[in-house]
Write a structure and sequence with these properties.
- With 310 residues, the protein is mostly helical.
- Helices cover 66% and strands 5% of the residues.
- It has one domain.
- It has a four-stranded mixed β-sheet, sandwiched between helices.
- A hairpin with a 7-residue loop joins strand 3 (114-117) and strand 4.
- The longest helix has 39 residues, at 198-236.
- The protein is globular.
Length: 310
């Protein structure tokens, strides 16, 4: 976790370290396994190329995470002259948190949401939508921005970006196998000593890695959202404002047409609330904790802050 005045979270640190280790091991196993399987079928020169391709995916994810997320949300960076109130609010929160100021972006969409991305605090971007700017009060927006800044300070955005590489690579290989891209080669390769065809081995390995990556990332994603709620609430000392913002955002998303929600769906996991309407979040596949769970936590923090000291 970056040094700042955001409250520390040992649970988040432990989870990020564990997920990075497990998914790093899975990614290495995927790259080596696919390289060996393909190499056994067609020669190890091609297997080496597959391995290098997997590494390239991870590097691209790390180097361009901010650009990819901004494009997915159709967002653009704004200057203090273009958005003085937004920049002023982030300036105050960064000074309060004693952290570097990230770049600031705005996405022109009616979907009320916000997200943070970037491989480091120096490369980070905090982005809000025009929908959220027109919906929240200043106190509520401050709570949302504190939540997003805590993601930057905790460095969980970087962890999520890098950790997702194994799942992305496995997903690409799975789709390739299903649509016959690898099946074509499997038909021409050596028969693998009478065992399974090369394309089927690639498919099975990729599916296994993707499934494990899918579960681990969602478990981490739900916890990091709760950690960001806690850190943001303690920084502003206004958990009630963040709770009110979350209720408005969730209610607003439920009123947005599916066509608009699909436009930002690719970056939904990064947002403060998922860009999904009418779906229960009490499942293993959800990227966010339920609204009820988040409100209960904020209510406990409010009660704690309201108790007289001394």
């Amino acid at each position: 976790m970056a040094r700042s005045r955001f409250v520390g979270d040992t649970g988040l640190t432990v989870r990020m370290t564990t997920v990075m280790f497990l998914l790093g091991a899975l990614f290495v196993a995927l790259v080596v396994g696919i390289a060996l399987v393909v190499g056994a079928g067609f020669g190890y020169g091609l297997g080496l190329l597959v391995g290098l391709g997997g590494i390239a995916v991870a590097f691209y994810q790390w180097a361009n995470s901010d650009k990819v997320a901004m494009r997915a949300m159709r967002a653009r960076e704004v200057t203090p002259a273009e958005a003085p109130e937004l920049h002023g609010m982030i300036d105050r929160l960064c000074a309060l948190a004693d952290m570097p100021k990230p770049r600031v972006g705005v996405a022109d969409t009616p979907v009320p949401n916000a997200f943070a991305t970037g491989r480091s605090p120096e490369r980070a971007v905090v982005c809000v939508t025009t929908g959220i700017l027109g919906m929240l009060t200043a106190e509520e927006l401050e709570g949302v921005l504190a939540h997003e800044l805590s993601h930057v300070a905790h460095r969980d955005v970087l962890v999520m970006t890098v950790a997702s590489s194994a799942g992305i690579a496995a997903g690409m290989l799975t789709q390739g196998s299903q649509y016959g891209a690898l099946g074509f080669f499997g038909g021409r390769g050596r028969d693998n000593n009478g065992g399974l065809p090369v394309w089927l081995l690639v498919l099975l390995v990729s599916l296994a890695v993707y499934a494990v990556s899918f579960v681990l990332l969602r478990l981490l994603s739900r916890y990091r959202e709760l950690a960001a709620d806690r850190a943001g609430a303690y920084l502003t000392m206004r958990p009630d404002a963040l709770a009110s913002a979350l209720q408005k955002i969730t209610g607003g998303i439920n009123q947005i047409p599916q066509r608009d929600l699909r436009q930002v769906g690719a970056a939904s996991a990064l947002c403060i609330a998922p860009a999904i309407s009418g779906v229960s979040l009490r499942t293993l596949t959800s990227t966010h904790p339920s609204l009820e769970q988040r409100l209960e936590q904020l209510a406990r923090i409010q009660a704690e802050l309201s108790r007289p000291t001394g």
